[in-house]
Amino acid sequence: MSVRFVLAIAKIHDLDTNVIDFVLDFHQAKLDVDVYMEIPAGMVLQNGHRGLSILKLNKSLYGLKQASANWYKMISKGLTDMGFKSSEVDPCVFISDKAFVLVYVDDYIVISRESGFIDNFVYSLKHGSKNFEFTKEGSLENYLGVKFVDYDKGDEFKMKQPFLTERIIEYLVFEQRVTNSQSTPAVKPLLH
Fold first, then answer.
1. Where exactly are the structural domains of the chain?
2. pTM of the model as a whole
3. Could you give the CA distance from residue 34 to residue 39 in angstroms, rounded to a whole number?
4. From CA 141, how far away is CA 19, in angstroms rounded?
5. Distance CA 77, CA 47 (A)
6. Fold for domain 2-144?
7. Which terminus of the chain is less hemmed in, N or C, by CB atoms within 10 Å?
């Protein structure tokens, strides 16, 4: 809901938009507790005894219970330090007097009413105290599997999900084949 709402505002007011994709987001966050793990299978140690050693993690890994919370704390702190405030309605929407930032794990949309703000924002993310690693994806054309059609033209735009649509059609066709290929006993309905 927040994505659609903020995108509608951006379209109505002709605001600048940009998509940012954080690289290995969870690995950028520090752990809030000590986490140890066994030596992974296939890793060869000098002493040759995997079972006698463990590893202490310095950074989060995907799959850790606290990985996403640690990442959110880190990005939230970074955005707060840059003057953004988390929305009370949706904590994944950050607002400042110059921009909105929509946060979805490692995919972000930055929307600004001030020309040049997004470039300064991106520079601050990369070279600020947190030194975030990310790629600037450019203008809004695809976000979270949603393709924005004619976003930069006219007063309207369409949101399509071709990948999801294709998967649903493939699933339905498969289900139809499976259903049609099996005989199922049934009673004919009585017609009056």
1. 2-144
2. 0.65
3. 16
4. 9
5. 42
6. Alpha-Beta Plaits (3.30.70)
7. C
Distance CA 53, CA 118 (A): 47
Q: How sure is the predictor about 51, in pLDDT bands with cuts at 50, 70 and 90?
A: low
Average pLDDT over residues 52-71: 79
- For the ranges 49-53, 108-112, 175-179, the lowest mean pLDDT is seen at 175-179
